[in-house]
Design goal:
Blueprint: E1 7-8, H1 9-27, E2 28-34, H2 35-38, E3 43-44, E4 46-53, H3 56-65, E5 69-72, E6 76-86, E7 92-101, H4 107-115, H5 118-130, E8 134-136, E9 140-142, E10 148-150, H6 154-160
Parallel strand pairs: 4-7
Antiparallel strand pairs: 1-3, 2-4, 5-6, 6-7, 8-9, 9-10
């Protein structure tokens, strides 16, 4: 595990290429990098993925066969893989990865929440509340009758909140600034 250590984004992308990408293709119908790497941060402390498994059997394969496993949950799998940098301590360092399981119905919401930033997500939840809606991280945007009105795609969530879509690289919420301000 990286222990809060930051790695250049290029190092994280290489870890995906060498250790994770091909495994994801074997278990997922769809997968997407999320988190700070998706937001285009120069340095990252981990690699987040949102995964739509081929089926429940494929998720079980991932729960047992991915490298460096530390958490084997029904909705989250976490582990670590080596990076090609030597920290000077005589061996390679590891970068943590997390796989977040999604369904077709909540793909957009899981991707949005796991991409972040946390402050941006809090801002979206506040907008939802102001509009009489609920921002449910594992479900989507829900109206007062309990009907999901946005969640299959990120665009559907912004639309349900009556906000323009914000690209991941602009999802930083600054104090006193608008959504997408950077």
């Amino acid at each position: 595990m990286s222990g809060g250590e930051k790695f250049p984004a290029a190092v994280a992308r290489e870890a995906i290429r060498r250790h994770l990408g091909w495994r994801l293709y074997n278990v997922a119908r769809l997968w997407q990098v999320a988190g700070s790497l998706r937001r285009g941060r120069e340095y990252v402390s981990d690699i987040d993925f949102v995964v739509l498994p081929i089926d429940s059997g494929a998720w079980e394969v991932a729960r047992t066969e991915f490298p460096g496993l530390m958490v084997r949950g029904n909705k989250v799998i976490a582990g670590s893989v080596p990076v090609d940098e030597d920290s000077g301590s005589g061996g390679p360092r590891n970068i943590r990865y997390e796989l977040y399981r999604a369904t077709e119905a909540n793909w957009g919401m899981i991707l949005l929440v796991r991409t972040g930033s946390a402050e941006h997500n809090v801002g979206l939840a506040q907008v939802a509340k102001l509009r009489g809606l609920s921002f449910r991280a594992g479900v989507g945007v829900v109206d007062g009758r309990g009907i999901v009105v946005g969640g299959e795609t990120e665009e559907s969530i912004f639309s349900a909140l009556r906000l323009p879509y914000v690209e991941p690289a602009r999802r930083e919420l600054r104090k006193g600034g608008p959504f997408g301000a950077r």
